[in-house]
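COURSE: Structural Biology Practicum
ASSIGNMENT: Worksheet 4, Part C
STUDENT ID: 0417
INSTRUCTIONS: Below are two proteins. For each, the amino acid sequence is given first, followed by its structure token string. Answer the questions at the end about the second protein only.

PROTEIN I
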Amino acid sequence: RPMLKRNNEKGARPTERGNVLNYIDRYSHAYMMAHQRTAPITLENTQEVYYILSGTATITGGGKTYNLYPGACALVPAGLEFVIDNATEEILEMYLVSEKVTAGFTPNKEILVRDEKTVTVRHKSHWTYESHVLFGRADGLSQLQNVAMVEIPPNSFSQPHSHDEKVEEVWSTIDTGMEFMLGKHVRKIEP
């Protein structure tokens, strides 16, 4: 079940709870039970990014099989049949980002998997953030500029900032809670 979904009423107040996204189709915290295998899936006009939080599994598409484990991130392109197989005793827990592909976009021909631990730090930003860009437009994203893991050191405070109206950021925590300022209010995000 998506935590956040696209608001189809551009610029208008959402008519359903969670319909606040403008560019991402949906953002979910998803689970796959132990000893489960998906039916073969082909994404039409959509591609998905899976970031693994816990558990292990495999993802197979285009005749290739890749391992999924905590810190692995998979970009599944539109038009490619794939299967996820959790043959373990553990629940597979992940974040799932789905984006619609734009007209004229040519998706990748195969699944792309990256390990967060082996991606080089792209840059430091907003005083303390360390950004690990997992995927960008050159890697096959259609509407999203990038998918990045951002490390914020404990007991730090980063520069307040905003973006123009064509930028959409979704923040989640992986293993610890976080506090941030939204306007004049301090908010908490729990894993």
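PROTEIN II
(use this one for the questions)
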Amino acid sequence: VNEDAEQAARTMAGDFRRSIIDVKEAMAGFQDTFVPLGFARGEALKLSDALTKLSFDLSSFYDKTQADVMRDLQSALVGQTETIRKYGVVVLEADVKQEAFRLGLARTEDDLTQQAKILARLSLIYQGTADAQGDLLRTQDSFSNKMREIQGVVKDLRVEFGQRLVLAIERAAQGFGGIASLADLLRVGFE
């Protein structure tokens, strides 16, 4: 993860009171959608940041898991727009073309690239989710969002504890002459 992505993830996790792990996974998932479709990494990072925020807002607004919302948005971006109807967004192919023309992404249907269609779908998704945008920050103290916050804290603590435990075991193994000696010592203790 580059420094810009790391900082964006930390800021978002703090602002949204969500697990840094969940935020990084969402950003990486969206990045993995945009980059193979030809978007430059910098542009993909900006789009990933924006869509990660939107996925958390939609999760809060509709009381869905963020991972489910993320998958729905990823599907919609590549043209499987029925997945976002549950969020009150209907995106038809004709709408995508018109939005691409309106945004100046293409002048004719022959000019309409895959990237232009994705950006047009994204624009329509944002228009259709206007009521949900910002919901997480507005409702952070609701029961559902407090529970998600607690789950995120626990998740981050588990990861932090696991990383420290692995480090301690590695150091102990070095002190015992390597992992084989530590394994032998542990095996003897259980016989």
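ANSWER KEY EXCERPT:
Q1: The two ends are 44 Å apart (CA to CA).
Q2: The mean pLDDT is 84.
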